[in-house]
Amino acid sequence: MQNVISISKFLIDLLETEQKKLIGNIELPPGTAKNRALLDNIYVLYACILNRIPVIMCGKPGTSKTLAANIVLNNLKGKRSNELFFQNLPELISVPYQGSKNCTSESVLKLFERADRYLGAEGNTDILPVIVFDEIGLADLSPHNPLKVLHSKLETDTCKYGFVGISNWRLDAAKMNRTLYLSCPDPSIDELKFTAGTISSSLLKQRTENTAIDKSVVRNLAAAYFDLQEHLKKHSEYKNHFGLRDFYSLIKGVVSDMIHLSNVQEPKNIVRQQLAINFDGIFDGSQFLWEKFCHHAKYDEFVEVENPPIFTEMIAQSLTSRKGRYLMLIGENEIILDYVERYIGKNKRSTQKLIGSSLPGDSIAGTTYSEQYNRRVLMDIVLHAETSITLIMRRMDHIYANLYDLFNQNFHTSGHKRQCRIAFDNLNYQQVPIHDDFFCIILVERKDFIENDPP
């Protein structure tokens, strides 16, 4: 028994040493927290891609799945790599695919044909195409059963390229039996505090003058969020109602307001307001978090003193600052959504509306729309995103998956302009400019929110 424990410890220590060595040579985006999920994801992807072992990463949004894949792809550039450590390795070429409930076996086969063309190109002996199948979980829900073609393409002994599947949930075992399955677990309370601290430090570094904030605020918010997740596990109807992206947005909003409004508002006021903005909804997580935050911060006497902002105040702040996350507003019925739409249009100039079509020529069957209609809508969104308008969207569920990076505000800067990737179909992407003051609001009826995956 003692020998088994010693061998286990030796292997764990060896893996941790190699992981640290690899991460030491990796260039990370500014403000990236080196938490356990990110380090594990990078290490497994590095090993699997270079050895042509297909891998599927499954975990809730915000567990660094897509981030880890982008980091590995951006660092392993063969002889063009910044680090000597990677210059003797193949150059990784991303072959992206956007999974959706409408994708087909034919489009998945075209994906592999595209990867094959990279391998067949003359003079490209030092490149390794990597298929990045984003939202493979959504593709698994397609009535066309597109994942059936993966079995023959992902045989470990004959696989010629890297394959990375990314999903928010675990797929059926039969769909994953040709791949390595990597589970991305929920972070511990210490990891939440570490990540929150890293986000806070990154925002403070962007300031030209020295600014100090109370670091205990973000630590107490992390502890409160951990309590919320533990609470929701006992209530299955709200289990995944809030996630890590809500938490990250909360920390960014609180720290940003503490930097800019420290002379105007008390930290407690800022926290209460940001909790309402990021954790309101069908289940009011903001009140639960406020009580837990006050408990951890020893502010129990303020629980009933600080009132949450009202709906119009939250709308006004989001549309005025335009720096936070885009909004999804949930209404009990279409009448309420009509009222909200008119209210926003009346109080905010330069608004545009896009409403899903019910015309026979646009709809194929039920909620499935023609490719021409989807492309036309996406082109409208691209044109609007280049301006400073507020875009209001309703009944557009069929194209929300194409706007994954836009909704996540996964922007990069090129030539002093924000750029974002938009998928026009499963195989074709376009980098489009996003105006600094562009803002998006999605209106969803409550019954649709409960029945479908939210955007």
Description of the structure:
- GO terms for molecular function: ATP hydrolysis activity; ubiquitin-protein transferase activity.
- InterPro entries: P-loop_NTPase, RNF213.
- This is AAA+ ATPase domain-containing protein.
- The protein is α/β, with parallel strands linked by helices.
- It has three domains: 15-184, P-loop containing nucleotide triphosphate hydrolases (Rossmann fold), CATH 3.40.50; 189-309; 327-451, P-loop containing nucleotide triphosphate hydrolases (Rossmann fold, 3-Layer(aba) Sandwich).
- The protein has helices spanning 2-25, 36-50, 65-75, 105-120, 136-140, 150-153, 173-176, 189-205, 216-232, 244-260, 267-279, 285-296, 311-321, 334-347, 371-385, 397-400, 404-407, 446-451, and strands at 55-59, 91-98, 127-134, 162-167, 180-184, 327-331, 351-355, 363-365, 368-369, 390-394, 412-414, 417-423, 429-434, 439-445.
- It has a five-stranded parallel beta sheet, with helices on both faces. A four-stranded parallel beta sheet has the order 6-14-10-7, sandwiched between helices.
Please describe the structure with a list of short key phrases separated by commas or semicolons.
Rossmann fold, ATP hydrolysis activity, RNF213, 3 domains, five-stranded parallel β-sheet, 455 residues, AAA+ ATPase domain-containing protein
Task: State mean pLDDT (0 to 100 scale).
Answer: 86
Overall strand count: 14
Biggest sheet descriptor: 5 strands, parallel
Order of strands in the sheet with the most strands? 2-3-4-1-5
Classify the helix fraction into a percent range.
Answer: 40-55%
What would you report as the Rg, rounded to the nearest angstrom? 23 Å
Q: What proportion strand?
A: 15-25%
| Shape summary | globular
Do you know the CATH architecture of the largest domain? 3-Layer(aba) Sandwich
The CATH superfamily of the largest domain turns out to be P-loop containing nucleotide triphosphate hydrolases
CATH C-level class of the largest domain is Alpha Beta
Stated plainly, the CATH topology of the largest domain is called Rossmann fold
Low-confidence stretches: none
The computed structural class is: alpha/beta
Distance between the termini: 50 Å
Count of structural domains: 3
Task: Enumerate how many helices there are, as a single number.
Answer: 18
